[in-house]
Amino acid sequence: MLSRRKIAEQLETAAADSSMLLERPISQWRLTIRRFRGRKSGMIGLTIVSLLILMAVFAPLLAPFPPNEVLIGKVDVGPREKPCVHLLGCDKSQPQHILGTDGNVRDEFSRIIFGARVSLTLGLFTVTIALLVGSTLGAVAGYAGGWFDNIIMRIMDVVLGFPSLLLAIAIVAVLGPGLQNALIAIAIVSIPAYARVMRAQVLAIKETDFVAASIALGSSARQILIRRVVPNALTPLVVLATLGVATAILEAAGLSFLGLGAQPPTAEWGSMLASERNNVFTSPHLVFFPGIAIMITVLGFNLMGDGLRDALDPALNK
Amino acid sequence: MLSFIIRRTLLAIPVLVGIVVVVFFLIRAIPGDPCTAMLGERATIAACERFNAANGLNEPIWVQLTIYMRNVFTFNLGESIRFSRPVNQILIERLPLTTELAGSALLIAISGGVPLGILAARKHNTMVDAGTMAFANIGVSMPVFWLGLMLAYIFAVLLKGTPLALPPSGRLTAGVFSIPYFEVWSWNLVEGTFWAKLNEYISNHYIFNTFITGQWDVWWDAVRHMILPAITLATIPLAIIARITRSSLLEVMNKDYIRTARAKGASEKRVVGRHALRNSLLPVVTIIGLQLGLLLGGAVLTETVFGLAGIGRALFDAITGRDYAIVQGFTVVVALGYVMVNLLVDISYGYLDPRIRVK
Fold this sequence. Notes:
Chain A is an all-alpha fold. Chain A is built from twelve helices and no strands. Chain B has a domain at about 90-180 and about 215-310 and about 335-359: Orthogonal Bundle (MetI-like fold).
């Protein structure tokens, strides 16, 4: 049952929409942006991600110390000090370390700020690689069909047959531990998802009238694929990629935790957490804060991805 | 229905063979050889020659592959280079822990996630809905290992001395043993037979074993040790299941047949329980099947955090230690489990949505 107020509101928006149409047609992207703005969770995600990007870019200005500076002898402070904030009543004679110091007497807060650089770069790079390779494979497989499609998709099935973290561990073992190799491993593991979505999209778009029209006009297969099919297939991939950044950051943190990702002394959240995990009972703050940093970042990308999906999926906007 | 099941089973075989072959080559692509990894400083050329001959590593690669494939299909997974013990035996000792861990986690995830999802959908656009979804969003964003460490800190340090204190590591308290049911009931098992191995494997599920033999103190100890790891591992799947249940139920609630059911005067409980829920379960079942991979990946991290000797941790050690036999053997078992669960998911589709059977 619709209340009278709701009906009035609906009529109002309908009227607003039609007047908008009289002025000028709204492009798909403007519409998406407007819808996205209406989603609270999406906007929260966007805000978190923007703040993190700012934090990563301006890290040297925000951090009170360089991330790898050992403070022994420079400031009167010991290893694994509890957080000390003057505003919150910490003794003024103590040096201020908002999140305390780590086992090597480095400022934890500075390291967490610089850690954003590592995680964001890693997330974006992995997804870019996976997106490029995966969607190319999926698009060609879907458009070409036949044996090529079959081979590619069976390979993808085999990759999907492994639990992703275990496969990533195996690949890093092949390539050797390190941030760059962890990045490649996570990219390889996430390729099948993009390939599958792209292929499904291409299969659907291949049958549309505008593709038939292009074929009739004599365009080559490559032209049709690049100019007609791919641009129309991108929508779900954008959502997948945003959510993919979140997964990539989480998996990279997992690899670092196992000692396969970023190596010390790099200020990376997963490895910061790993190196202090045996001290969790005595200095829990050194485990707590890096984990919170990972969680907020992942949450930001997840919320943004959900918001984008809602905004791009017309079925949800009836 | 039967032909549907058979068709699905046959489709799974090439994927399984593919996985076995990929693992075989992947593990051999890892730089460093088992000889140097094992013998270290003592790895002279002559010593390595003997070592390789003893472990069949001198054969051409395709001969190794054939032998390996033949062994896999006769369920002989070879001998661990590192521990000089049959991989089967190591599996018997370690797999039950991971099965119990993943099983309890999945149980928590389903019994928590589905009701939460239903609750959020029933109270759509209220504070309850928003709160549940905020919880779910945070749940999927947490690093498993971090959650584990934090839970260990809270329950082993902050709550120490209270009845809520829980042990942060291990499977049983030191000095506590789970006596296998075949010893309790004094069965006569012939050492080394398949039957004896099978019973040993089953009895290594401590929670199950102590439950059926009534060793209540040991049972309670095992359960207490399992709570934190299981909750840790369950959080992400729980959040995902809650989200899918909610969105799927919301979609179904808009369908015409729900309106029809309401128009007939069916009670709200009946509308949701009989008409909406079953039709909204399909995506939920898919997701539950997909969680298994996540659980196994998470098991590596959870077992590391809680110092548990399961197959996740063993697999990780074997990969970094170049123990070919263990990696190959365990991956086959893991992949087999994975493929079988997906098969079950496919079959349950056929049950939940009869239209799929025909396609």
